[in-house]
Amino acid sequence: MRIDLHAHSNVSDGTQTPAALIAAAALARLDVVALTDHDSTDGWAEALAAARELGVGLIPGMEISCKTSQGVSVHLLCYLHDPGNVKLLEEITKAKDARLTRAERMVERLAEDYPLNWGDVSAHVAPGATIGRPHIADAMVAAGIVADRSEAFANILTSHSRYFVSHYAPDPVLAVELVRAAGGVPVFAHPMASARGRVAPPDVFHDMIDAGLLGLEVDHRDNPAEGRAWLRGLARDRGLLVTGSSDYHGAGKPNLLGENLTEPAALERIMEQASGTAAYLP
Ligand code: AMP
Ligand code: FE
Ligand code: FE
Ligand code: ZN
Q1: How is 204-257 classified by DSSP, letter by letter?
Q2: Which residues contact ligand 1 via a Cβ below 6 A?
Q3: Range of the domain at 250
Q4: What is the CATH number of the domain that holds 27?
Q5: Whether pLDDT at 161 is above 90
Q6: Domain total of the chain
């Protein structure tokens, strides 16, 4: 079984429609793919229709951007939650709205030094999609300022950059609680991705586990080897499952579907504990 539990469509910062993502998953010979757009479930219906048509297993999911009280960015994957759950929906709507204001403010700052305006950026955002820095990067590529998203993130768009603006994001412990209350299963995404910024200290992991975190995304290209070893030890000590995934973003990142995979037993455990939405397995 080839199972990849982390992929994005243009409902957030991926470059393909949900249907095209499922077609790409079929081409990559995946048996199961999870659609995990940032702070949105708007792609689920289209992905499900394509999954049925192409015979690809689909785990509807989402990736929630969170921030600790110390300002550390944490991404929380969640699977099979009820997309209509009011409390979770309120929280991600608040974050989505804040992302829009934040993107506008970043573009204002960038426009002082680069030939870039809001229209250039919004042209790269699908209607209703969750906006993020990758869309600003796409506009910078189109304007010839950088060659690709990676170059944009290498300095201009990093969290250390003077153009960077932060946005509201829920505390990861709250997000874990909300996901569980919505019948979903929470998994910590790329927990050791140190190249993106500060990683969460151990007490944040333990607080999230106490709140109901079920798994750690260990096999992800952004987790260095030492970090993975620590994560495996933690998973063993605290009875967590481990996942592996690509974090595919279409043409927006070099990550390829299926470059890391999740064991069937881990997916089974996720499905056993979820009660918000059904998985589709052909
Ligand atoms: P934001 O949601 O606005 O904070 O932007 C973070 C998103 O940017 C993440 O979801 C990543 O997918 C993407 N990202 C981070 N680093 C890079 C990079 N080096 N190249 C391309 N995309 C990146
Ligand atoms: Fe992303
Ligand atoms: Fe992420
Ligand atoms: Zn992701």
Answers
A1: HHHHHHHHT--EEEEE-TTS-HHHHHHHHHHHHHHT-EEEE---BBTBTSS--T
A2: 13, 38, 65, 132-134, 149-150, 153, 196, 249, 253
A3: 3-93+167-273
A4: 3.20.20.140
A5: yes
A6: 1
Three-state DSSP class for residue 45: helix
What residue has token string 């030939």?
Answer: 115
Most distant CA pair in the chain, distance: 52
Six-digit token string for 213? 């975190």
What is the distance in A from the centroid of ligand 4 to the CA of 65? 9
Q: Which ligand is nearest to the CA of 157?
A: 1
Token readout for 114 is: 């680069």
Q: How far apart are CA 262 and CA 264, in angstroms?
A: 6
pLDDT digits (tens, 9 = 90+) for 193-234: 998 889 999 999 999 999 999 999 999 999 999 999 999 999
- Residue 127 in domain: no
pLDDT in tens, 23-47: 999 999 999 999 999 999 999 999 9
Give the global pTM: 0.98
